[in-house]
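User: What would this chain look like folded?
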Amino acid sequence: MSDGKRILNQIHDYRATNVIGFIAMTATIHQERSQGPEIRAPEVRFNVDWGSKVDIWGLGVMVRDIFEDRHLFDARDEDGGYSPSHHVAEMVAYLGLPPVSFVRRSKWLGAGGVTVPATSLQEVEENLTGENQQMFLEFMRSMLQWIPEKRKTAQELLDDAWLN
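Assistant: Here's the prediction, encoded as structure tokens.
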């Protein structure tokens, strides 16, 4: 069994087709808040209209958290409380700066003054090496995208090389 299949089988004992099939159920556009703070997709964090692609983002964060046995996004300030600004700084560290087109759609007026951590997705991936690591990182990057429309669909994830 590939690492990818093993991880998906661990997610609440669902089979991969059930988890990803559920994500594919809705295409509704929303404007209200969604998701827990640490897995909140960029479009939700930045108050942009969102749809089912937030679930693809959430799946990516969850797969990575389970696989590495720790959270990708810590998003804590100096006092240990959740901080949207720290969360965005971590997103920038892992994904690079958001595209201007995304920022223009945003209604978020986050606080500044937060340092972007000097890290990357590759740096925080500790369980794999070589080609398997590269396939995993490509799988993660296909879900963790600033622009929701650039994230893979549920079916494309099922067909990903890392899962097969």
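The chain has one domain: 3-163. If you want, I can go into more detail on any region.
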